[in-house]
From TrEMBL:
Protein name: Protein kish
Cross-referenced PANTHER family: PROTEIN KISH-A
Subcellular location: Golgi apparatus membrane
Keyword annotations of the record: Golgi apparatus, Membrane, Signal, Transmembrane, Transmembrane helix
Primary subcellular site in the record, as a coarse category: Golgi
InterPro entries linked: KISH_domain, Ksh1
Residue spans crossing the bilayer: 6-24, 52-69
Recorded family membership: Belongs to the KISH family.
Function field: Involved in the early part of the secretory pathway.
Superkingdom field: Eukaryota
Pfam families named among the record's database cross-references: DUF1242
């Protein structure tokens, strides 16, 4: 089933996207300097990961636990 139609998979994809964008921005900041257009979406995801990192970590942990038990 597509990740767009399954809410659990959609949340997993969003969390992985946020974590990936944050990692890329920390390692290669020049890649995500543009704040508008298509690359702006990734810049915004990296910004969410930077500012809400405790909540993103809790969400990632919860998704990992829920995959194990469900």
């Amino acid at each position: 089933m597509s990740a767009l139609f399954n809410f659990h998979s959609f949340l997993t994809v969003v969390l992985l996207g946020i974590c990936s964008c944050t990692y890329v921005k920390m390692q290669f900041p020049a890649l995500l300097e543009q704040r508008t257009g298509f690359r702006g979406v990734f810049w915004k995801a990296a910004r969410i990961g930077e500012r809400l990192s405790p909540w993103v970590a809790v969400g990632s942990f919860a998704m990992g636990v829920s995959i194990i038990f469900f």
